[in-house]
Amino acid sequence: MTTIFGYPLVVVLGQLVLGLVNGSFYALLSLGLAVIFGLMRVVNFAHGAFYALGAYAALVGLNVLGVGYWPALLLAPLVVGALGVVAERLLLRRLHGLDPLYGLLLTFGLALAIEGTLHQVFGSSGESYPVPEALRGVFNLGFMILPRYRAWVIVVSLVVCFGTWFVIERTRLGATLRAATENAPLLQAFGVNVPVLVAATYGGGVALAAFAGVLSAPVILVSSQMGSALVIVVFAVVVIGGMGSILGAVVSGLLLGLVEGFTKVIYPEASNIVVFVIMALVLIVRPHGLFGRE
Predict the structure, then answer these.
(1) How many distinct structural domains can be found in the chain?
(2) CB atoms near residue 101 (< 10 Å)
């Protein structure tokens, strides 16, 4: 039997695939953080709360309004993204030009308010969301049985992540967004409504978090605290990829998911800290991240 570091190849491959599923969530959430920081210079600590809000929007839509999974993939991010626009217009805009620390503290308070509200309304016990009928069943990969839904998570995450990267880095809209961060007064002189552009950027970033929340709802229990622990890992992923680097966030999220999966095979006790160990090493060797700019 073929082995890697003394472990059966089938076991290693199975954990790598499961790690890729986790990496898909890391990439999606890191992407939203990178978009907001790269274009607004705001460290959005409320990202995990918006992730949970997206999952609850899908759950309420199903249980109360009868909105199924497929419409929820579109509607939940739109609703949460609209809430993000409101938060930017009413709160974050007042901090423009101030030290980024104020934005971090404000979004941290916003996260506590959202999570506290979800806890009061829905309680502390998690709720399950059913896997859509079209994605039930499994794929037999030979070395493991992979649920169809987890395969769907990998595919749709890759499409959304690299689609977002293409829009920001390779289109006129993306060029306009980047110009708004580098020279907003000049862009406004050309007739572009920069404040609306900034609000839309924040709304788009939190909509990506909500989309990840809807994707995760059939995989994990939906709870008010579901984003709290995950967002710490995602911040580490963003730091490793380079703060503000869209491609760095996506690639680092996927790779670190694979590394985490591999670590669960060879040294399970370290799987919860391997991301932070890598972050520390990257900060020592390359403080601006693997894909970031000095």
Answers:
(1) 1
(2) 10
Is 2 part of a structural domain of the chain? no
Instruction: Render pLDDT for 89-113 as a digit per residue (tens, 0 to 9).
Output: 999 988 877 788 888 899 999 999 9
Query: What's the mean per-residue pLDDT of the chain?
Result: 89
The residue range of the domain holding 92 is: 10-285
User: Both tokens of residue 81?
Assistant: 């993204």
Q: Is residue 247 part of a domain?
A: yes
pTM of the model: 0.93
Confidence of residue 169 (pLDDT cuts 50, 70, 90): confident
Q: Does some domain include residue 185?
A: yes
Is 5 inside any structural domain? Answer: no
The answer to whether 196 touches 97, Cβ cutoff 8 Å, is: no
How many Å apart are CA 279 and CA 284, to the nearest integer? 9
Residue by residue, DSSP assigns the chain as --EETTEEHHHHHHHHHHHHHHHHHHHHHHHHHHHHHHHH----TTHHHHHHHHHHHHHHHHHTS---HHHHHHHHHHHHHHHHHHHHHHTGGGGTTS-HHHHHHHHHHHHHHHHHHHHHHH-SS-B--PPPGGG-SEEE-SS-EEEHHHHHHHHHHHHHHHHHHHHHHHSHHHHHHHHHHH-HHHHHHTT--HHHHHHHHHHHHHHHHHHHHHHHTTTS-B-TTTTHHHHHHHHHHHHHH-TT-HHHHHHHHHHHHHHHHHHHHH-GGGTTTHHHHHHHHHHHH-TT-SS---
> Look-up: residue for tokens 């978009």?
35
Which CATH number characterizes residue 232's domain?
A: 1.10.3470
